[in-house]
Amino acid sequence: MNKDNQNDVVTGASQTIDVNSGSSLMEPDKNKSKETVQVKSEWPGPKGMIPVTSGKADDANVHNRVFLDNILVEMRVIDAVEPDLTTTILGRKYSSPLMPAAVSHLNKVLSDKTRKPMQEKAIAARNMDLLNWIGMETNEEYGEIVAQGGDTIRIIKPFADHNKILDEIKFAEEKGAVAVGIDIDHIAGKNGKYDVVDGIPLGPITMEDLKHYAESTNLPFIAKGVLSVSDALKARQAGCKAIVVSHHHGRVPFGIPPLSILPEIKKALAGSGMEIYADGSLMGGYDAYKALALGADAVLIGRGILSELLKSGTRATEDKLKKMNEELAEMMMYTGVKDTNSFDASVLHYE
Ligand SMILES: Cc1cc2nc3c(=O)[nH]c(=O)nc-3n(C[C@H](O)[C@H](O)[C@H](O)COP(=O)(O)O)c2cc1C
C-alpha cells in the first residue's frame, strides 16, 4: 500500500492515512480505539484562516474516518458491467458524481504568488466536465475564477449583512452560476459568538432569511452544512432545491459523520424532489462510493484534492480525480452497480 508518511499539505499528519484510498491504515484489530485514526491537519496558510483539525476526540473528522473505514461491502459480480459514471446534477449532465468542493482563499496561501489554485481547480473541473463549487471569495475574485472555469456553484457565507448576500447571489447569477447557496454551518465562531471571517461579521440564518434568499433568485438555492433531519426539513420548507449534508470539515466539535445521518435525511426528504449531496473526509473513490451508496446524489471532494492542487496544480488535481473515478468505478463493478442511478445501500455491511 502506498503510504504517505509526511505532513501532507492539507490532510495533514497522514502517517496513518493511505494516500490513494484515504483509508486509515488500521490494523485488523477491532479493539483499536479512535485515537489510532490520526487525521490531524496542519493548515499551511496564515494562522486562523482555516480551521485546523486537531485529531482529538472533539475533531469530527476523526469520527468521519472511523465511520467510513468500518463500512465494508459485499460482492455482486455476476452480471456486473463496467459502470457509467455520468451523473445528472440539477438537470445538467456531468462526467461523474465527484464535485470539487466549495473551498476558498487558496490564492492567498502559496508563497508562489504567480499561482492561482482557485483558478487551477476550476480549470481541472472544466477539463474533466465536473461541477465545480466555490466558497467565500469577493465578487471580483469569484468573477476571475469562473472566467477560467466551467459550471459552478457559488456558496456564500451567512453574512450578517443580508444585502451583501443578496448582492453576491445576483453577481453569481450574472456570471452564469448553476446554483447558489449558503454554508449555514458557518454561523458560530470558536468564542461562541457569531463568527467573523476576513473581518466580515457573520450572523444568524433564520427560516425567513433562508426563504428570502431562495426566493430572491431563479437559480436553485442550496443549504450547505445540514447535519440533522430538522435542518433538512427547514431547508425544504424554505424552498431550497438541494442540501449538502456536511459539517464543513469539522466546524462543529463532536459532529456526527455526515454519512451516518444521510440515510435518515434522505428518508425525510423523500418525494421532495430535492437533491442531496454529501461531503466529509471523502479522500478517495472508495469513500465516495460509500457516500453514494448511502444515498448522496453527488459528493463534494475538498481535502481529497487539496494536497495535489496546492503542490502541483491543475494536472495533479485532474490525476487525483481520475484516480478517484477509477476507484469508484471499480467498487461499482464489484458490487454490481451499473450506473450512478443504481446505487444500493444493501451492499454495505458495518463492522
Ligand atoms: C481550505 C478550505 C476552505 C473552505 N472554504 C469553504 C467556504 O468558503 N465555504 C464553504 O461552504 N465551505 C468551505 N470549505 C468546506 C468544504 O466545502 C467542505 O465542506 C469540507 O472541506 C468537507 O469536505 P472534505 O472533508 O472533503 O474537505 C472549505 C474547506 C477547506 C479545506
Automatic annotation (TrEMBL):
Coiled coil: none annotated. It holds the Pfam family FMN_dh. Residues 1-56 are annotated as: Disordered. Residues 27-37 have a biased composition (Basic and acidic residues). SUPFAM superfamilies: FMN-linked oxidoreductases (SSF51395). It comes from Lactobacillus gallinarum. The keyword Flavoprotein applies. Its cofactor is FMN. InterPro entries: Aldolase_TIM, FMN-dep_DH, FMN_HAD. This is FMN-dependent dehydrogenase.
